Amino acid sequence: MSRIDLFAMTATGLEHILANELRQLAMNPVEITAGGVSISGSIEHLQRINLWSRIANRVLVRVAEFHASTFHELERRAKKIEWDRFLAPDTKARFRVTCRKSKLYHSDAVAERLAESAGTSATTEKERQDDDAEEREGQLFVVRIAHDICTISADSSGDLLHRRGYRQAVAKAPLRETIAAAMVIGSGWDRASALVDPMCGAGTIAIEAAMIARRIAPGAKRAFAFENWPGHDPAAWGRMKEDASNQQLPGATGQIIASDRDAGAVAAAAANAERAGVRADIQIEERALSDAEYPPGPGWIVTNPPYGLRVGESAPLRNLYARLGKILTDAQGYRLALLSADHGLESQLGLHLQEVFRTTNGGIPVRLVTGG
User: Fold this and answer.
1) C-alpha span between 189 and 330 (Å, rounded)
2) Phi-psi category of 81—alpha, beta or left, where left has phi over 0 and alpha has psi -120 to 50?
3) pTM greater than 0.85 (yes/no)
4) Is CATH 3.40.50.150 the classification given to domain 177-214+249-371?
5) Domain boundaries, the chain
6) What's the CATH class of domain 4-155?
7) 285 burial type by CB count under 10 A (0-12 exposed, 13-18 middle, 19+ buried)
8) pLDDT digit string (tens) for 259-289?
9) Are 261 and 286 in contact (CB under 8 A)?
10) How far apart are CA 210 and CA 215, in angstroms?
11) CA dihedral over 7, 232, 44, 166, signed as positive or negative
C-alpha cells in the first residue's frame, strides 16, 4: 500500500476541528465531508492518525468503489479486491452494510456475497447508535451502497479511538474522550494558564487537557486493527510509538484542577488519571461548585454541567448556571467553555456566548459555547 485513501471519522460537528488537527500532523490537503475528513496518504499516515488523533472516532481505508446494481455485478467486482491486504489467514470478516436508494437493498445478502468473494466467513452487524458497546472480533469492513455505487472501506482502528484505555471508572453520564478533547481544543486554552473543571465527573476533561499539555499520544496504550494486517511492519510501528514517547513532556506547565461535589466521581477521576499517567498533573478535590479553587487568572473553566432534560430539573439547574456565571465574573481573567444542551439555561450565565461547535453527547444534541 504505497498511497491509500483514508477517511477519518468523527462525531458530526467536529469535522473542522479534526481537519485542523490533521493539518498539524503534517497531513495536507484534507477534504472535509459530513462525518469526517478524507486524505490521501501512506500507511505511516494511517498509523499516525490512529496514534495521535484526539478527535477521530476511527480511521477507514478506502478499499474499492464501483457500480453494482445486481448481485452478479457485485460479486464480479468484489472478487478483484485484494482482501488479503487486510485479512490474515483464519481471520473472520465483519461487514457493516447500509443500502440507500439502490437496487441492492438487502444488507445481509450484500455482506454474504462480499464474504464469499473474500473467501472468508462473515458476520453482519448494524450501524450502532451506542458506540460504547464492546467491539466484536474480526476485521470490520464498512460498506455503503448509495444510488448503486458501492464503497468498501477497511477499519484500521478496531475499538473506537475514544477508548484510550484509561477510563475504567466512570461517573454518571460519562463524557466521551474525543468530545472532551474537542472541548479543550475549542476553548482556546493556551496550556500555560490554569484550567478548572468544577463539575468534573470521571475527570475526562482534565485528563484530556493534561494529555494535550504533556504531548501524550492518546493511542499510546492501546492496540489497533491494522496491527493484525498481513503487511504490518511491527518494527516500523514500534519506532513510531517510541518517537511519540520521546515527545512527551515531564509535566504540564499550567495548573489543572478537577473537582466535584460527589465523592464517587472524585474517586473515579483519580483512578482514571492514574491509569492515564497524568495523576501528578491534576489537582483532584471533592468540592461543591462554589467552593472550587480558581487560581489567579488568566485561566479557563472548561466543564460539562448537567443538562436538566427530565421534568422538575430546570429550577435547580437555573440556580447552578447562575452561580457559574457569578463565579466567572468574580474569577478575574477567566474564560468559560461550556457544553450545553439548553439555550434557556445558558441565559442564566449572564454572559455573551459564542458557539464553537454542535454535536451530540450520549444521543443528546449539545453545543460548545465560550464566553467571559
Assistant:
1) 19
2) beta
3) yes
4) yes
5) 4-155, 177-214+249-371
6) alpha beta
7) middle
8) 999 999 999 999 999 999 999 999 999 999 9
9) yes
10) 8
11) positive
